[in-house]
Amino acid sequence: MPELPEVETVRAGLESYVIGRKITEARSFHPRAVKPSSIAPLSAIVGAKIKSVNRRGKFIWLGLDRDFTLAAHLGMSGQLLVQPSDHPAQTHLRAKIVISSRKMSSRTIDEIRFIDQRTFGWLSVEELNNGVPTSASHIAYDPFEPEFDLKQVVAKIRTKKSSIKSAILNQEVLSGIGNIYADESLWRAKIHPEIICEDLSENEIKKVISSAASVMKSAIKAGGTSFDEQYKNVNGESGYFSRSLSVYGRQGEPCSRCRAPIARIAFANRSSHFCPRCQR
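RESULT FIELD:
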């Protein structure tokens, strides 16, 4: 699933292409492309001008010159691509938004395409609550937002009886972190993923969060992490941070710090990767 670095890469890519452009057509091609709770069909955004491209955690939304917004979540395999209208339709094209034409470099970009092989992602026309779409109103600030309160988040985590990995994956505690960057953050902080939050000091939890911000910042610079063909940036290119991962997906390989073999254990229908020597 795309996490904060991948979604931020998509957000920034969209921003460079679509700001100030008018939506001239909007169509969906799959019954699950538009979220059931959407307050209007996708066609409701036709005629709107795109004023901004925003993100919180893993959610993206287009700021429009309307009293509603177009929100998007990429789910497990969603992609938002910017392309010319004469580009062949992708096999898993679920929706498209046609925008006023503008020549970018050597090609004319006039469509935003939503492609989603596994159909867990969605688009949704939504009202705004304090500048945030309804679907994201319960989501906590992510570490890159000015409103993110480190002291408050640390205090909240310290009260939890869950494992530290479960806590940092909880999007209502802090948003944007998924399985990949949770493993990487905990490795950088030298904290075992199964340690109970109550057993960690304030400084240890701060180190986990600062490590998360650091690893995600590096991942954004690399264009995100791609393990397959499902995550792409808006130009259809893969990210390269997988080359810099220290533990995720590296079971049995030597830890780059201590050379102990990286371990993999079951975690909530997924896996945790960690160094059994460094992370205790």
